[in-house]
Amino acid sequence: FYSRSLMLDRLINILLRTIGSFNAKAKVAMSRFEPGTSISYEKLHENINIVRKRLNRPLTLSEKIVYGHLDDPVGQDIARGRTYLRLRPDRVAMQDATAQMAMLQFISSGLPKVAVPSTIHCDHLIEAQIGGVEDLKRAKEVNQEVYNFLATAGAKYGVGFWKPGSGIIHQIILENYAYPGVLLIGTDSHTPNGGGLGSICIGVGGADAVDVMAGIPWELKCPNVIGVKLTGSLSGWTSPKDVILKVAGILTVKGGTGAIVEYHGPGVDSISCTGEAKRYDFSHLLVAGMATICNMGAEIGATTSVFPYNHRMKTYLNKTGRADIAALADEHKDDLVPDKGCKYDHVIEINLSELKPHINGPFTPDLAHPVSEIGAVAEKNGWPLEVKVGLIGSCTNSSYEDMGRAASLAKQALDKGLKCKAAFTVTPGSEQIRATIERDGFSKILRDVGGVVLANACGPCIGQWDRKDVKMGEKNTIVTSYNRNFTSRNDANPATHAFVTSPEIVTALAIAGTLKFDPETDYLTAANGEKFKLEPPNGDELPARDFDPGQDTYQHPPAESGSVMVDVSPTSTRLQLLEPFDKWNGKDLEDLQVLIKVKGKCTTDHISAAGPWLKFRGHLDNISNNMLIGAINIENDAVNKIKNRLTGEYGGVPDVARHYKANGLSWVVVGDDNYGEGSSREHAALEPRHLGGRVILVKSFARIHETNLKKQGMLPLTFADPTDYDKIRPDDKLSITGLATFAPGKPLKGVVKHGDGSQDIITLNHTFNENQVEWFHAGSALNRMKELQ
């Protein structure tokens, strides 16, 4: 018996050593830049099982990843669209325009290091003027102070730093940091791009990023889940971009608010390719295409979008040097796809075989048109038919396959002796993409057809474009492969009619020079007079010779950062240390002056413009000079012209706000539906707070902006009856009562005081939870964080 027992003990020890060895081997780093981190699919699996048993039902993929990151999966109250979840994201990513304020807030927290892997990406501050090399050189000179601040702050607090020229944040994330099942938050509204690799990637404001970097559970209202069932297969000129253009037309810019969009169905899994001349028949959805669809999901207000894990993702991970992550994902595939029988709150079905190429716009990304109809629609509406500029690239469509497809069309035109009739610009998504398309000849073809290859940066997509070909106010049309086309967004010209479409349609329209061209049916005239049609585009998802990484543009945070100094000059016009906002005084808000009653669409571009204002994103007082300068005043249909009720004179919105603040008069903004849609920029919340605002009262909010306002101690409120918007006059004063018992689910009361002495009593709703009420009491979420330290 003894010998058998000894033998059993030895076998157990051998087995334990084997298991330990296996577990050691199974530890896979989250990225090649962070060897000390590891992916924990085991924890994800454990949490999923806990929640599945609690809810006693199958889970969607979105629920698996989100609930798999719960801080307390056992005790968390879970109800879609109702409860707030406390989550533990895996990592944080910040682009340079929003990272400035995020890092300034983190510095104010007093914490020594970030608690989760975090990165800064320099992509927003590079203005497109001449071409990639020249523009990058100039940006480094002009923005030296900001780049130095971000680099040293990253080094000091343990944040990786991607230097200017490295590429657009979302492409860098896709190539290096996204992986199936990760929960990532990013300080940019198009962070959902990572959903193309099976990730839950959510755009947030800088204050949310600070919470996660500080190791505090991050709050998210439990999202609903919209299912988009894809059937059939794409072919010809139809591309993945057309999927989201179609969805945007169905759901509109606010139809996805409060929801994750989850793509599923046989259209996702049909992955065959034709072999003829390596031409796409698009009967499969590739990673870059899935990322495009998820990226532009921000334009329907979705919290994020996601695709289930599939072998295309595995191939992409292998090709980008992450075979170990692909192998690990394979082992945990059941947790990276939806459960059979799971239920969605709403389902949209799209037959890819019937889908036609689309083009959306102008002035809003949800105005969808088939390409075959846009010429006639433009003529009917008086939109300019001539295409002045075609622009491809941006974070939405700047992958290797996007560039390859565009180059295949450009080559056809060149072979017939043609060049683009419109100006044509090309934005590579990353240094890796730039180097690879240069090596493989795509860049030369695109330049030969008339294109200008810009820096690896956001450029014209976010208004960083020193455009010279039209005068300000001149009516004109541009077509882009971007994601957003609000008034004045790309070039600051309110008369520019911007349309968004796929890179291949942009290229075709740039060659033809007119919106009245349907590449599926219309002919071009070659240099020799011959009529010809463009063949559908072709290209490879991934380069046959692997990627060329190009220049090394990453700065690792040092192991020892005690000697690193982060300086902010008190005389700087670009950077400014933050002062805490004042706490709530315990009283109702009495006699708030209506600063402006906004008419119609009011995006974060209207509230805090980008373009030339980006240079002040690290200086709260200076950036506040752009507050609401794009919003339309209902009193006179003018922008940046409101009446100062103290002086009787008209002035700019920021000027009047400053005058009110200097005279101790707090104020309120009144707005319409989906207020604050668009970018995640928290400056649109910081600026009103800084200039003396207390309340933003609207019919409805976009998700990120509402949260950003709460974070800064503002009161974002909505009309219980949307028609009460009409009761408020531009010269009214408003009192908010009931704040002494301010609590979740309990409406507040508004007393509207008119100039003629009459009053209206209205009910005001809010979405504050208990923690968020504490932010209001403390004056901001950052103030509350300090109170708890």
TrEMBL record:
Any one Gene Ontology BP term: tricarboxylic acid cycle
Catalytic reaction annotation: citrate = D-threo-isocitrate
Subcellular location: Mitochondrion
Entry EC no(s): 4.2.1.3
Pathway: Carbohydrate metabolism; tricarboxylic acid cycle; isocitrate from oxaloacetate: step 2/2
Cofactor or coenzyme needed: [4Fe-4S] cluster
Cofactor stoichiometry and binding remark: Binds 1 [4Fe-4S] cluster per subunit.
Keywords: 4Fe-4S, Iron, Iron-sulfur, Lyase, Metal-binding, Mitochondrion, Transit peptide, Tricarboxylic acid cycle
Gene Ontology molecular function terms on file: 4 iron, 4 sulfur cluster binding; aconitate hydratase activity; metal ion binding
UniProt xrefs under PROSITE patterns: ACONITASE_1, ACONITASE_2
Enzyme class, broadest EC rank: lyase
CDD domains in alphabetical order: AcnA_Mitochon_Swivel, AcnA_Mitochondrial
UniProt-listed InterPro entries: Acnase/IPM_dHydase_lsu_aba_1/3, Acoase/IPM_deHydtase_lsu_aba, Aconitase/3IPM_dehydase_swvl, Aconitase/IPM_isomerase, Aconitase_4Fe-4S_BS, Aconitase_4Fe-4S_dom, Aconitase_dom2, Aconitase_mito-like
CC terms in the record's Gene Ontology section: cytosol; mitochondrion
Chief place where the protein resides: mitochondrion
Residues in Aconitase A/isopropylmalate dehydratase small subunit swivel domain copies: 593-721
General function of this protein: Catalyzes the isomerization of citrate to isocitrate via cis-aconitate.
Family, similarity comment: Belongs to the aconitase/IPM isomerase family.
PANTHER family cross-referenced by the UniProt entry: ACONITATE HYDRATASE B, ACONITATE HYDRATASE, MITOCHONDRIAL
Name recorded for this polypeptide: Aconitate hydratase, mitochondrial
Lineage: Eukaryota, Metazoa, Chordata, Craniata, Vertebrata
Gene name of the record: ACO2
